[in-house]
Design brief:
The chain contains eleven helices and twelve strands. With 339 residues, the chain is an alpha/beta fold. It has a domain of 87 residues. The strands form two sheets. It has an eight-stranded mixed β-sheet with strand order 6-7-8-3-9-10-12-11, with helices on both faces. It has a four-stranded antiparallel β-sheet with strand order 2-1-4-5, covered by helices on one side. A hairpin with a 2-residue loop joins strand 4 and strand 5. The structure holds adenosine-5'-diphosphate and magnesium ion (MG).
Amino acid sequence: MTDTATAPAVRDSSGDDIVLSAKGLVVEYPVPGKKPVRAVHGIDIELRRGETLGLVGESGCGKSSTGRALVMLPPPTEGEVMLGDLRLDGLTQKQLRKHRKELQLIFQDPISSLNPRRTALEIVMEPLTFLKHPKPKERALELLQEVGVDSAMAKRKPHQLSGGQCQRVSIARGVAQQPSVIICDEPVSALDVSVQAQVLNLLERMKDEHDLSLVFISHDLAVVKNISDRVAVMYLGRIVELAGSEDIYQHPRHHYTALLLSSIPQPNRPEKLQDVANEGEIATSPAPSSGCPFASRCPAATEICRTVMPPLAELAPGHRVACHHPIPVEAEPDLRSAS
Ligand SMILES: Nc1ncnc2c1ncn2[C@@H]1O[C@H](COP(=O)(O)OP(=O)(O)O)[C@@H](O)[C@H]1O
Ligand SMILES: [Mg+2]
């Protein structure tokens, strides 16, 4: 096991440089007097260096649990997490602390995720001071400037800033630690639509300028589409489809992905389609013990779907689908031009 501060390069079979990966990731929450709730059912995930990997699915499908387990906050119940060639699971808290800065988390609620008693400047300075930066104040002001928070705003506390400004401060604080990975958990979901695009643009710019790799979590496929290089679709604690962003939007192969896509509002589409993203209670209902978890909602389900769990198989290069009856590419309706 190496003990370096930055994640060294690890390449997968296709030659991609993998910065963070997990195998057989399981997250369970204890429930007093009952069996624990299994939020994540043994998923494999790989984040390539420099990419933005979108993680989408309905509320309650396990996105946040996955994101937090990837950064060991808290560590997964089962499974292996690798930062470069460093195995994170199994490290003691003390050992982990040395690598914490490499993995940053940005949360949905920007105001409450920041220390209410500190100013924006102090919030960004804190990790720099901890990491013994020679000029923490100067560097913090520089970073705040970079994210669009001027020196007057830097004197304010979170409740004196807007949600968008707080999210900018969170981003500056995360970047201050020179991480290799930032997990962004619904980073714009609590923001006004007009502010969302600005914060997304900022994240993309920071990713490029600071050599970051991002996991971008959202229940909103429309938001993920623009920012992600690849997209993983989660359903009831499992990844059901994983492909390049364009590919998944042009040719969804899983019936659940197609359903999610059909819920993106289309200006030219006459009929009002059901907003599946809001059907939280369906996504949190217990998964069947055998078979495909989507079978009960799937238009293509047959007997095998109710009894045999489909593996996440590579149907085309870089396109993985867990489905016994994947949507054929030719038959896929073009949702973007439907009128
Ligand atoms: N701290 C917790 N204790 C018990 N159950 C939890 C806890 N956090 C999440 N869960 C459950 O785990 C499942 C996945 O939750 P979560 O990862 O937050 O999903 P998402 O981020 O996709 O909305 C849900 O059923 C949720 O109720
Ligand atoms: Mg969540």
